[in-house]
Amino acid sequence: MNDPILEIRNLQKTYKNGPTALGGVDLQIRKGEIFALLGPNGAGKTTLIGAVCGLVNPTGGSIQAFGLDVNRHWREVRCRIGLVPQELSFDMFDKVIRQVRYSRGMFGCAPDEGRIEEVLKSLSLWDKRDEPIRKLSGGMKRRVMIAKALAHDPELLFLDEPTAGVDVELRRDMWKQIEALRERGTTIILTTHYIEEAEEMADRVGVINKGQILLTDDKDAIMSQLGRTEAHFVLADPLTEIPAALAHYPVTLEQEGTHLVYRGGDGTGKGKREVAELAQDLTRNNIAYTELDTRESTLEDIFVGLVAEREQEKAA
The whole model's pTM is what? Predict the structure, then answer.
């Protein structure tokens, strides 16, 4: 495998007279990938990004980007990184195109009107280029933030909750833009509350909670290792107990015995096979059901399960 474009080792951040935001984070990001960092509010996602971008001073550990130590070569490193923060940050009275030009110049890039036009058109902002930013919708303002981050052609792009507060249609449009960036060779790290963003776009997923990385792996590998099947059989007649013929299945009776619920599998297809076998056994034992609802676990299920599991381990 090629050397990572970003390598974080034992990164720590403890605020003075405050909490520990990062408790020894280790993370490697591959060149050209989309990496989704999932975690609840206060998990340490924004602090981690801030440390890489020079906005937060770590209290321990090391960060290397493009093979350079971020602490010693921060100017060179920062010029190769783009950041779209959660909070909108620009002169609301300025015009769109002036803000994007300013951002490019701020990183020492020579003027390039052709590139500015290309960026604005890719984000459907060209027709709004002479509009004062204050007159734009929330979604368009978010696009301007992305345009500013792309103006200096970064090799590594951080998107911190890029679609927060954006409607579904605009969110999907942004997903397309992010995919286009990946095709250009840009490495992307995004934090998100929208689990479907990770499922839609990410090559790899990391889960962070309370300043600790709980898991990092290829998205498909996570689904394969931790995936589960859940099936709800709505019974024609309620049961008071699980029949002996079904006792070997991971099933429970719920809703006053009217629902027989299967929860099992391991992401290899075992769950689907067992649900089919369970349906056959119900028929053989003259247990009628009127409805069957089956679903596979999502990244959100996995994320919630991991956080709950770690909390239980700490409490034990």
Answer: 0.77
